[in-house]
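Structure tokens
________________
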Amino acid sequence: MTTNAINPLDGRYFEKTRALAPYFSEQALMKYRIIVEGEYLIALSLSGKTKLRKFNNVEIKKIRNLYELSLKDFKRIKNIEKITNHDVKAVEYFLKERLSKTSLKGSIEWIHFAITSEDTNNIAYALILSDALEKIMIAGIKEIILNLNKLAVQYKNLPMLARTHGQSASPTAFGKEMKVFSHRLEKRLEGLKSIKIEAKLNGATGNYNAHIAAYPSVNWPEFSKKFIESFNKGRSQKLACNLITTQIECHDSYVAIFDTLRRINTVLLDFNQDMWRYISDGWVGQVPKKKETGSSTMPHKINPIDFENSEGNLGIANALFEFFARKLPISRLQRDLSDSTVERAFGTAFGHTYLAYISLLKGLSKISVNKEKMKQDLLAHPEVITEAIQTILRREGVEMPYEKLKLLTRGKQITLDNIHKFIDTLKVSDKVKKELKRITPLNYIGLATKLV
């Protein structure tokens, strides 16, 4: 935790979000750039298509040893950057500086050969997004789904008053309502995992100008494709080569990721607000912790702060994801630099999202379901079974059953006894009357249990 941090993700919440630091910190970005530059140098060497000699295994290992960027190395890069005023060039000079002291000293001018800084950057960001999704974000979403599915199974038989338009409605099961959210998340998660992150390696304006000038007979598009796809080994969130670009990769696949995360977050916003209402109604309780304080003045309170915290952070994250989606696909002519500073904010959006996941999971770990309160509130609304009664009466050919029940119930507070007396007045068989009287708010839940 940085005590003077302006961003709460690096201050108050750092212990909760530090899992993202290996992907979105400034040091992490430098590390991923070094990986791209190092692997590109190795690929040129092993391709046999240029004058660059083939490196031996020891030399390749020396290059890859630089990927574990130490704090000292990071500071050295930042010092070089003060001179160059260019962060990718600083990485290039750092690599040359380090490799000039090895058997590779005669090959250092092949570092960053024919490529532009955006070739390095876009592949680095593709790798960052891939790793952060696979190792942190998707795992968090899966854990939420797992917890919701556990609640769904545990409470699949628990009847609950439903509300549509804020009014009492046909009963449901608490477990089924949890399943609604897990099912929505499962579908969106599959969509997220299927997105391939596009990257490019084709020079200053996307035409391989420098590559072709130096080696016109080399199939550079095929080299690019092979190089970018080489990062997919052991990686579930795959990269794909985009061969047709300007100086920048168009970021459309980034937007697909951000839009999907935003949709996932919107489902969770919906869930947080529903849980807040269930807690407010007393249907869901929160297990008190002995030394915790709910309110600074009202001793009795246990506030749903985890769900509220999650909701707030999801809102911040979605605002950023929405901005990314509007901004990143647009670049003046062959490129402008306005996307660069925006990309540095990816970690902020991911951080608020991840913090929201953690808060939601914490909230779920503290809840207890008040079955008795749910039952009492459901039984207090016997009018919810009139849907079933009028439907059966339609089946039996009774004239205007909906209207009859509307007259009995609308705007009135009735009891189950009132409904049974109404049933006794109906001109239907005793068998049908018995069928109607067997319907109660507790058993009128349709296929809710089976749907779970």
